[in-house]
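EI: anyone free to look at a 129-residue chain?
SC: sure, send it
EI:
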Amino acid sequence: MSDRERANLAFVENWIDLHNSDPQRMVAECYAPGAVIVVPGVEEFGVARLRELEAEGAAAAIERKTRALRVVGSGDVVAVEGVTRATTAGEAAGESSTEETYWCVLLTLRDGLIVSDHAYLNSPGIRSD
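SC: here you go
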């Protein structure tokens, strides 16, 4: 494994840690300003939209925890297979529900930042219209 690949794998650990602790900081510190995020068949967007989505996710969740199940790096590309478990409040007081979303993302890194993020999500709540 090259030094660059080791650095990219360490980057992914930090990316996951920040997603769990401070999603807005994750976006600011891990994504290049012109990064392109693609969820095939759903949406393609930039960093501003990612900030919005992370704020919405954090606001909706009582608890949210992301973890990597498998990480494979080659050159500037890192593939991450993971799961995010989110608990949200129900409609009635005291109710809640928990959903696990399994995902895989292909990250392209340049100069220590994500320039391309292609995410494949396994979630019943996400679909193209």
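EI: The longest strand covers residues 96-110.
SC: 👍
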